[in-house]
Amino acid sequence: MSEYFNFEKIKEILRSRETEKGLNSHQVGNISDAFPFTTSPAKSKVFNEERVEIIGSLLRKIIDKREPVIEYDGDFYYSKDPIVNNIVENVDFPEDRHQDMLSGFLEDYLYKSSREFKPLHLYLFNYITLSESRRTDKEKYANFLFDLLFFSQNKEVKQIFSNKKTSNLLTDLILHALPELEDRTTSGIEAPRTYSNILIGIEEIFMEDFIYLSKHKEYFINNFFMVIHYYVFIYILQYLRKSMKFGRDDNNSVDPLYFTFNWETGIGAYRNAVEDYRTIKTNAKNLFVHIHCQSHLSHQQSNGESKGELKSYKLILEELGRLDLADQQLEKEKLVSWIKEYSSMAIKDRTLEEVSKENDFEHLFKILFDRLKLGMNEEACKKYGDNIDNIGKNHFLKARGKHGYILSLNQDYFLTLSALAVKDKKVPLREYFKELEIRGIIFDQYSQKEAVKVLDQLNYIEKKSDSGDAQYVKPIL
Length: 477
What we know:
Elements: H1 8-15, E1 18-19, E2 22-23, H2 46-49, H3 51-62, H4 82-89, H5 99-110, H6 135-150, H7 155-162, H8 169-177, H9 200-214, H10 217-244, E3 257-258, E4 260-261, H11 272-283, H12 287-297, H13 313-321, H14 325-346, H15 361-375, H16 378-385, H17 387-392, E5 397-399, E6 405-409, H18 411-422, E7 427-428, H19 429-438, E8 441-442, H20 445-457, E9 461-463, E10 471-473
Parallel strand pairs: 3-8, 4-6
Antiparallel strand pairs: 1-2, 5-6, 7-10, 9-10
Helix pairs in contact: 3-6, 4-5, 4-8, 9-10, 12-15, 14-15, 18-19
């Protein structure tokens, strides 16, 4: 008896949600989540609106420390901020004067705003605590970022954010006034992912870029989250694009998307970037359906009672392809049976075509997807897909009139990603554009000219002739 698919758990969960009209809700079952998204418009904005607190929570996960409780138990209060009070208390003042002056100075020195540290030292970010408002949602996003980009981190990344060294005496005074962070885990056993990463290639490219950027400390402290944000957005776009192909693609490579620049004018329908993001927008409502479809298919015998990893269509097809023909046929029968069973629970208002076990697996995946789409609430699917816009707005998307949003970079993002593409050695112009493609960005002829123009104006282009092959992009950092 072939032992690949096992739909018993998802069947049990969905049966409990069955009504006379269909299913009152959908669940992914005993499988890891794909994203921390919801169908709530307010919650979907957490990533951008609560970025600072998410950074603090993420960095503590990276260095495996608990959220600190920052208190002040001294006799005199110089500030509303306990960190400032602790620092002032540790300073000896002649004749007990100037404490108020120092506390005022420290408040201006430490903070951009009431909740955001100035980028004085990376270790300080570990002390950004979570306020109670939307706390659970912020924790989910921090867990997502960790599982997506840092789960397989090496020791070097942990060292980046746990290093307290500084040559600045005032910063050293501040760091020593902070309470020691407690270890999060003591068992030494690595916790499983809460969120699955089905595109490991992106994590590998990100880690290479992140480690490189960290060598440039001043630039890194101001821009590291910019790089995290970019790779998260690209991952979401790639997840949708790869899913749309139902396994007919390489999950280890990135399909570049066409970007423009914020300052470009006269963007017409003929531009590739318009069509690329239009395709994303058209299919965004299917993101929710693809996640559930792949979750159903990830319910497998090998999971046992443990929560299983979410698997891509591509990986599932590869694993099924390793079975002998007899076992493949048995798995098709199980999948066909599950499609029929799901349909009987979720779609009660129409007659459906018979599903044949003579179909290949890819076609059966598409049939399951179509049935899930029929069984789901259209408005919920749309709201879930709107999270793509919410992650990209004000950073990687620009409204272009009747064309709606299209993928776009401002100069800061462009130069940072260019720095990562070039690193420490000058590269031929064509190789530079190839490196951007590896990171998910491709430019049409118009945006390529703009890219070269900006790099040339900033003296990052070395010309040996006017031909593209004889132009080089110099290191930016």
